[in-house]
Amino acid sequence: MANSYFQFKQFRIEQDQCAMKVCTDACVLGATADVASATRLLDIGTGTGLLALMVAQRNPSAYIEAVEIDEAAAAQAAANIAASPWASRLTIHAQSLRAFAATQPAAFDHILCNPPFFRNALRSPDAARTTARHTADDTLAFEEITEFAHRFLTPDGKLTVLLPPPEMQQFERAAAVASLYPVSRLVVHHRAGSKPLRHITTFSHQPQAITQQNLAIYADHAEVYSDDFQRLLSPFYLYL
User: Fold this and answer.
1) Is the pTM of the predicted complex or chain greater than 0.70?
2) What would the CATH number be for the domain defined by 5-233?
3) How do strand 90-93 and strand 5-7 relate by DSSP bridges?
4) Alpha carbon of 227 to those of 67, 215, 216, 230: distances in Å?
5) Residues 38-70: pLDDT tens digits?
6) Where are the domains of the chain?
7) Pairing of strands 196-204, 153-163
8) How far apart, in whole angstroms, are the C-alpha atoms of residue 238 and residue 222?
9) Helices 165-177 and 142-152, axial angle in degrees (round to 10)
10) Residue 217 is inside which H or E element, if any?
11) Tens-digit pLDDT profile for residues 161-192
């Protein structure tokens, strides 16, 4: 059974009301996204509020908004944010992305998203977990994310997304329709040389040559975190 909370060095994530708990790949996304120069950021489908809080820790001048359609998760994310050192710079919107778009928000310098990705897999009997893990016309489709980013990113803005490799290929096709182009990719592996687990891809309005890096979570032949992973997550994880 997952813990009811996850304690980071500078904040705590309570997660008993959220379908999707704190996970390693989401932490990698929060630690690697290029947010240093952004002043307005958006976390789409924030869940526990994890990405919004990691970004707030990394960028002390950023104002961060977050959207979450599940009411219980949005309430818990709001509580996590209220208990953090950065509550004055974060806002939770308990609504769908479509409803949030209808409010005509100001443009964002960076949008982060760890979207649902099981398009054709067996559905969970837990409705909240299904919403968090599966795309659907009435929840959060790839096309809706890319269309929103096309409309509400600044001209130099970036969209960074975490997905498994096959789903990232689908997402890239949706992004191309919305005139968004991949500019960097982090390939996350269990160990160096193993099958890729996740792609963390950044998109922009301007096409350019894509750069790619690799990250192994674990060291070779040992159940310990790799040096690269430890350096990346040491500002966040208590035990690094």
Assistant:
1) yes
2) 3.40.50.150
3) unpaired
4) 34, 10, 9, 5
5) 999 999 999 999 999 999 999 999 999 999 999
6) 5-233
7) antiparallel
8) 20
9) 50
10) strand 211-218
11) 999 999 999 999 999 999 999 999 999 999 99
